[in-house]
Amino acid sequence: MALLGQKTSDVNSLARLLGEVVGKDHVLTDPAELITYEADGLTHGRTRPALVVLPASTAEVSAVLEIASAAGVPVVPRGAGTGLSGGARPVEGGLVLALSRMRRILEVDLDDGWARVEPGVANLDLTRAVAGRGFYYAPDPSSQIICSIGGNVAENSGGAHCLKYGFTVNHVLAVRLVLAGGEVVDLGGPAPDAPGYDLVAAVVGSEGLLGVVTEATVRLLRRPEATKTFLAVFPSTDEAGNAVSAIIAAGIVPAAIEMMDRLAIAAARAATGVDWPDLGAVLLMDADGPAAEVDHVSERAMALARAAGAVEVRIPKDERERELMWKGRKSAFAAVGRLSPSYLVEDGVIPRSEIARVLREIGALARAAGLRVANVFHAGDGNLHPLVLYDAQVSGEEERAARLGGDILRLCLSLGGSITGEHGVGAEKVAFMAEQFGPDDLDTMQRVRCAFDPARLLNPGKVFPAPRLCGEVPGPYRPHPAEAAGVAERW
Amino acid sequence: MVTGGASERPAGEGEQVPASVAEAASAMRALSSERRPVVFFGGGTEPWPEPPPKGAAVLRTSRLDRIREHAPADQIVAVEAGLTLEKLQRYLAPHGQRLALDPPLPERATLGGILAAGSFGPRRTRYGSIRDLVIGITLLRADGALARGGGKVVKNVAGFDLPRLLYGSAGSLALVVEVVVRLHPLPEVSETVAVDGLTAEGALSLARAARDERLEPAAVAAILERGRARLLLRFEGFGPGVRGQVERFLLGPARNLPAERCIGGDEAALWALHDALRTKGDLRAKATFVPGRGPRALASLGPLLRALEGGAAVYYPTLGIAFVAGTLVDPLTAAEAVASARREVAPGRGAVVLSAAPPALYERTGILGPPPPEVELFRRLKSAFDPEGRIGPGRLWEGAKP
Question: Which chain B positions have a beta carbon within 8 Å of A299's beta carbon?
Fold first, then answer.
């Protein structure tokens, strides 16, 4: 891997070559312009790339990658830069490939329910483009106003409604992928089950390590006939957690079921003007589908919430009020900025039946660390987003916050959960991968990478801790921890 | 009715039937040190049509049939890969749950086989395939190493997606030894509406009309026999939702059409017929196409249908998939028919795959059709997992040039 930056002449000659491909205005080397690209949504741990290239077409991406790989320069692909795990953090002395100029919707076929788009198209813009005809794109990360489809594909993004509708991987039919050396391949198609290995599934969620997606064909769904939303207020997260379990146990599949604890409620009140009571927890639930089904399901879910101890159940009186409720939820991350000068956004997953207990344990960990944690999360699938509040000006607090975040992830793992439900491993959680997976698990994933990018020039340093080289002979056989124990204890 | 031909009971010597994951791993290590090729068998419902190569070991998963962990409140179950779907469903039912997959022959189809073959049934309409329901796997590599991907929580993006990478991998990347899947509640009620006397165009437009009415059937499938299509729409869920949807369908899109409401035994018989058509004869071809090209695809499958004895087809209009099944009588005509259907469905990455066929046909047509441009990536992936090419040798265009 060749890193630039020591010699200005190297950067300049590479910039000149790349400028011939994308136009010199679309190659950034000026430190003032590079600042924007030093970090993504994970703002600490900034790193300056040697240059940023902004191609406008698949052909340009291909030419850029061919040049970079010939020079042996690492490349970090970047969408809208909203990622929360540092997946788009540059490699110092490397190249950032920003896809923000590729933002056309290329083709829409509503009869068959799909659209072919460039990676820079904002998630919500795709829905807006087809909403008038009663269709939408289902994955809805909270950043959907600005986050890009290409970034969603790289991260396998979720959102509040993935409990019923699945993640990005369930909605991507095909991708055009540029490999590290510049080779262009088309994977999948609007026809299902293309024979052969499911490389679309390999690419979705690969965090920019396997190739650069320059087109994605994604499913568009018919907007459901009816959506009913309610907000239930509980004295504590215990009752709210039990309500979630009762609703699920009744055979209901909510379109979304979100929980916020007292601190998160306070933040949402301050930031969005929602008038939710200052109590222990709220649940926000959407039921959607055919009207007859939705009426029945939402009545039943509200009854179960009351039985579980809800002190109040609110139904929005109109679409505006419903949107405000959801705004309260979707702006929660940013709203916490009202409560604290700095905060970490965690993203861990637990079995949903453990919600009440885990929230109590997180509370205990926070008290022990002398910090506050606000909880906003996708309760239906156990995807927690603990927000660890701290003040970077207070000496040692940032480190304590990071330690607390790590302790929360370990708590998730101890219950058979995951270190990330939707934000990705990125740069931030590389160290935790070896706690979730064993050496052979990681080695097997590396083999996938070796098939796509043996030189490992794409997004190096992300996802995997210190991998062995492709083609390197593995060491002697070691039993998998579960095999040694004779049981499947750890997933 | 059930056939797997010669490949269902392969003649390869040295069959191995490990009783545990650890035994399977040691068997694979032994094969690795002998450098011996190996093929895997689950329930044999969709085996690779070619018989195992000479000298290949056969590893059966039938004794890997334990339920490892069921967390009803979390709606997940972890099972060994040789467990049959029927046994799993029977275990889950008292908990009010099911795996929302319904490929034919559930009494034989195993979870590992369903993943490796990409098997599915009509409920794919609503719930997707196992690709959409699998959340974790343990695989056994050619070198005997056990590796896990995914996990046992529904939402999880840590690491590369090994579970889905094994979807449709036809036993050529690794042996699936454990599978973790997401479960769904058993519906309170189910009702199927059957509309008879349709053409393929009629079936597609009726299915689309249901979608435009924003109805959400759990399954949509057309049965094609003797040139006529009967479209089945199954509604499942809570009573009021199901009744409301059936009535809207009958008063709306199906108005003036010969529609029949079926519940209980009548409903079960309809879907049993569907399963029977999917599995009849010795030839089963799966055609995939862009959904809007369905009627053209079906027309292009006509000559193949006519080249079979007792030929019938099942068509999933919203999915863009059709199966043709029957008994092969004229391999030459059938081979020409497969070739021309492949040309017709090709746009948008359609294909005609022979999921079961006598050698007289697949030797002429190939099992999968011409290799796609990304076959070089397939080769690299295969060799990263199985550098000596010992697992399911020759499958998925191994050795083909783009």
Answer: none
From chain A, the residues in CB contact with B204 under 8 A are none
* Option in A252, A444, A463 nearest B162 (CB): A444
Given a contact cutoff of 8 angstroms between Cβ atoms, the answer to whether A232 and A312 are in contact is yes
Question: Would A176 be classed as within a structural domain?
Answer: yes
My answer on whether A438 and A396 are in the same domain is: yes
Contacts of A475 (CB under 8 A, 6+ apart): none
Closest CA–CA distance from residue A369 to any residue of chain B (Å): 27
Q: What is the mean pLDDT of residues A474-490?
A: 46
Q: How does residue A480 score in pLDDT terms, banded at 50, 70 and 90?
A: low
B142 vs chain A: nearest CA distance in angstroms? 11
Question: Closest Cα to residue A375, out of A16, A138, A366?
Answer: A366
Span A84-106, average pLDDT: 96
Cα–Cα distance, B361 to B367 (Å, whole number): 9
Cβ within 8 Å, pair A351-B173: no
- Name the CA dihedral angle for B301, B306, B312, B317, rounded to a multiple of 10 degrees: 20
Please tell me which of the candidates B156, B290, B385 has its beta carbon nearest to residue A421: B156
Residues of B in contact with A352 (CB under 8 A): 73-74
Q: Which of A170, A421, A425 sits opposite B128 (nearest CB)?
A: A170
pLDDT in tens, B296-330: 999 999 999 999 999 999 999 999 999 999 999 99
Q: Residues 6 or more apart from A385 whose CB is under 8 A from it?
A: A333, A345, A346, A347, A375, A376, A377, A378
The verdict on residue A481 lying in a domain is: no
**Chain mean pLDDT for chain A:** 93
Residues of A in contact with B167 (CB under 8 A): 198, 201
**Same domain as A404, residue A331:** no
Q: Please indicate, yes or no, whether residues A127 and A197 belong to a single structural domain of this protein.
A: yes
Read off the pLDDT band of A4 (50, 70, 90): confident
Secondary structure tally for chain A: helices H, strands E:
17, 20
Contact A286, A254 (CB under 8 A): yes
Q: How far apart are CA B301 and CA B154, in angstroms?
A: 39
- Cα separation, B149 vs B163, in Å, equals 6
pTM of the entire predicted model: 0.95
| Interchain CB distance below 8 Å, B153 and A162 | no
- Does A218 share its domain with A238? no
**Which of A161, A193, A222 is the last residue in one of the domains?**
A222
Same structural domain for residues A350 and A395?
Answer: yes
Q: What is the DSSP string of B105-152?
A: -TTT-BHHHHHHHT---TTHHHH--HHHHEEEEEEE-TTS-EEEEE-S
Sign of the CA dihedral with B290 first, then B292, B294, and B296 last: negative
Confidence (pLDDT) at A491: 34
Instruction: Answer yes or no: do A366 and A331 share one domain.
Output: no
The answer to whether the CB atoms of A483 and B161 lie below 8 A apart is no
Average pLDDT over residues A69-96: 96
Give the chain B residue nearest A206 (alpha carbons): B160
pLDDT value at B337 more than 70: yes
Asked if A222's CB is within 8 angstroms of B118's CB, the reply is: no
A194 lies in the same domain as A129: yes
Range of the domain at A121: 105-222
State which of A59, A79, A98 marks the end of a domain.
A98
Is A491 contained in some domain? Answer: no
Q: Per-residue confidence at B6, pLDDT binned at 50, 70, 90? A: very low
CB contact under 8 A, B375 and A248: no
| Domains in chain B, CATH or no CATH each | 5-60 (no CATH), 67-185 (3.30.465.10), 189-275 (3.30.70.2190), 280-365 (3.30.70)
The share of chain A scoring above pLDDT 70, in percent, equals 95
Which chain A residues are within 8 Å of B96, Cβ to Cβ? 251
Interface test with B, best of A111, A293, A353 (most B CBs within 10 A): A293
Residue A432 lies in a domain: yes
Out of A198, A417, A436, the one facing B131 most closely (by C-beta) is: A198
ipTM: 0.95
- Count how many pairs of residues, chain A against chain B, have C-beta atoms within 8 Å: 307
pLDDT, position A5:
60
